[in-house]
Design brief:
This protein has 565 residues and is of the alpha/beta class. The protein is built from 11 helices and 44 strands. Helix content is 35%, strand content 19%. The strands form 6 sheets. A 10-stranded mixed beta sheet has the order 1-4-7-11-15-19-23-27-31-35, with no helix packed on it. Strands 5-8-12-16-20-24-28-32-36-39 form a 10-stranded parallel beta sheet. A hairpin with a 2-residue loop joins β42 (492-499) and β43 (502-508). α3 packs antiparallel against α4 (353-384), α4 (353-384) runs antiparallel to α8 and α9 packs across α10. The longest helix is centred in the middle third of the chain and has 32 residues, at 353-384.
């Protein structure tokens, strides 16, 4: 190591040595006492030692003694710790802090740092406490090494706090701390337990590429700015219960090797778990009653690797899924879709087929809801993109050029119709007809999905629903055949004769059971030919046959999916 005199931290008698007292790695007890006395003298302007002698006091420094432990010296009582106010910048780069001897009045507890506090690359040998300390300017601990338990409990960081590349070899306590500026913990190593419970981060909290080797506790933390945990690694359990993320929470490419808890945590911004690896179960259940939603923004689980299951949905007391509670967690429909997808995949991996099917239904219903919101705009844009319509609109460009050709809202559509009706009535009529026609087709497709996809089969997950629906159609058609024949809308003939005047029905069905038999044969499209309809009952038979063909295909598909997957 080069000489230290140029740093201005060494005594004249040590200036030509390889290490000065401030940077000597292995200080003995005598040197430790000398170190802290010189540190106090250099930065605080005085020394208070076991003999009670104030070596020197400068006007630029203040100190307050707190008598938490009294030491009688020569008839006078002194505290073995003092809490200091640092009025000037504190430069402790590469300092080696030994354990504090009991007879030295020195502590960073409740200290006030008026200016920049620089502990870059410092080494703290023993127990270190900054409990209750106030950093009014920058606090720099980049590349610092804390070899003993480290206390920052109730500390207040009003400026930027930097702990990049720092190493905490023992437990680190940041409980109830206030980070009013950006908090930077990039590439920091926490080798034992880490406690940030009840901490508040007013601005960006950066834990990117941070290593948590012990248990980590972030319970009830409040992140008012972006929270960045991307590419971090949690070796043991990590607890984020009841946290509040006011802005984006980014856990992209993070590895969780222990249990993870986000129960009753609130995400008011986007929540990103892209590429995350969960090697143990992860729980994101529930929300506090005072919040309307749990997820207010986007939710991204793309490329996530869930090894032992994820729990977003809770269970009722009877063991069934608490679907109502699950649906209430999401403000955005796309977030609901993503959560249902991930929960479904987790249930599939766990072999919980029934639960997986329920999540699939929730996912498909959410997708349908999302499509419903876009239904009109899609139909409108499709209609306006028809070649004839675009040609007619080009003819009226003088009148409509101030508007976009591809309308995206109902308001623009109404403006378009109103304007073209007053200038080009024929154009407006054709445009309106095209939009209504295509909108009708979209609506029919949506209704078909609701009826066939959801009501009849629960999106292919319930063969019982398909059989029940089929039975309803067969019995309903039976009743219509029976009542329709009595009302004179036609007949279902058992025997008929072909004459010059047409086909004459000689023997119509005479009992409800005949009508049921005919309905069953029609529904299954068997076509025995021993009965046939006449009149309006032909239309009813055609509708039932078409419905039966669809339902029979559904039955096969659902049973194959249910029993053979």
């Amino acid at each position: 190591m080069c000489k230290m005199a140029h740093f201005g931290n060494c005594d004249p008698e040590m200036a030509d040595q390889e290490y000065c007292i401030f940077r000597k790695p292995d200080k003995d007890e005598k040197e430790a006492r000398k170190f802290y006395n010189k540190l106090v003298l250099k930065f605080f302007g005085y020394v208070l030692n076991i003999k009670g002698i104030a070596v020197r006091k400068l006007e630029n420094f203040e100190y307050n003694l707190h008598f938490s432990k009294n030491i009688p010296v020569g008839g006078t009582t002194y505290s073995h710790r003092a809490n200091y106010r640092f009025r000037l910048s504190l430069r402790c780069e590469k300092f080696v802090f030994p354990e504090i001897p009991t007879d030295v009045a020195f502590s960073f507890e409740y200290a006030i740092f008026e200016k920049k506090a620089n502990f870059r690359s410092a080494i703290f040998i023993g127990y270190t406490t900054f409990e209750g300390a106030v950093f009014k300017n920058e606090a720099i601990f980049d590349s610092a090494i804390f070899k003993g338990n480290t206390i920052f409990e109730k500390a207040q960081f009003n400026g930027v706090s930097r702990f990049s590349d720092a190493t905490f070899e023992m437990s680190a306590y940041f409980e109830n701390s206030m980070f009013n500026g950006n908090a930077v913990f990039e590439r920091t190593e926490f080798r034992r337990e880490t406690y940030f419970e009840n901490a508040t981060f007013d601005k960006t909290a950066n834990f990117e590429e941070t290593m948590f080797f012990g248990k980590s506790n972030f319970q009830k933390c409040r992140f008012l700015g972006d929270a960045k945990f991307s590419e971090a690694c949690f070796e043991l359990s990590s607890d984020f219960e009841r946290c509040i993320f006011e802005k984006n929470a980014d856990f992209s490419a993070t590895t969780f090797n222990g249990y993870v808890y986000f129960d009753k945590t609130i995400f008011k911004g986007d929540c990103l778990f892209e590429g995350v690896t969960f090697n143990e179960p992860v729980s994101l259940k529930g929300k506090p009653k005072e919040y309307e939603y749990k997820f207010y923004g986007k939710l991204d689980f793309s490329n996530v690797d869930i090894r032992k299951g994820i729990s977003i949905i809770d269970y009722k007391e009877d063991g069934s899924l608490y679907e109502e509670g699950f649906l209430s967690l999401f403000k955005r429909t796309d977030a609901l879709i993503e959560a249902a997808r991930v929960q479904r995949l987790s249930f599939e991996k766990e072999g919980k087929r029934e639960e997986a099917d329920r999540m699939f239904v929730i996912e498909m219903r959410a997708k349908r809801k999302l499509r419903k919101l876009e239904l009109f705009n899609r139909a409108l844009n499709r209609a306006l993109n028809v070649r004839v319509i675009k040609y007619l609109l080009n003819l009226s460009e003088k009148g409509t050029g101030w508007m976009r050709k591809d309308s995206e809202s109902l308001l623009e559509f109404l403006k378009l119709i109103l304007l073209t009706f007053t200038i080009y009535p024929l154009t407006a009529l054709v445009v309106t007809f095209a939009i209504l026609l295509i909108s009708t087709l979209y609506v029919l497709g949506y209704v078909t999905e609701v009826v066939i996809g959801d009501w009849v089969s629960l999106y292919g997950t319930s063969w019982e629903r398909v059989l029940e629906s089929s039975l309803i159609v067969i019995l309903g058609s039976t009743l219509l055949y029976w009542l329709g024949q009595k009302a004179g809308f036609g007949t279902v003939c058992i025997h008929s004769t072909v004459t010059s005047n047409g086909v004459v029905c000689n023997a119509p069905i005479s009992s409800f059971w005949d009508a049921l038999y005919y309905s069953l044969v029609t529904f299954t499209t068997l076509g025995y030919g021993d009965m046939h309809p006449t009149g309006w009952l032909k239309a009813l038979s055609a509708i039932e046959a078409l419905t039966g063909a669809v339902f029979m295909a559904l039955i096969v598909a659902v049973i194959a999916r249910k029993w053979m997957r």
